[in-house]
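#structure-requests
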Amino acid sequence: MIQVYTGDGRQTHFPPMGLSLRAAGHHMRTHISCFLPHEWMDAADMATRLLQPYLVIEHVEAEGSPPNGNWNKTTIHKMRQSLKRSREALKGGEFDIVVLNGIIEICSQGIISFV
């Protein structure tokens, strides 16, 4: 099953996080890839520590969307590697849920393609 949660990209979308926390309560494992920085990164790291091994949150070390959309090559590489690890998490069967936070923005900018 695939669920897509979209928004304007300026605010955090909480349904995937709530789904992940509920899943942890049922001993299901969630892998979250955060492609863009967000205001709840510290809280996410704390939740990961408290809910191990049921919650894994990976932050790509990006400093936010550049105003002109010109990402540096290092950040683009990190985003692509994070997507690769997300695919492996999904295919490998180790995780029950995989969340791609910020994926729509970086796809719309042509950084990552699912083709």
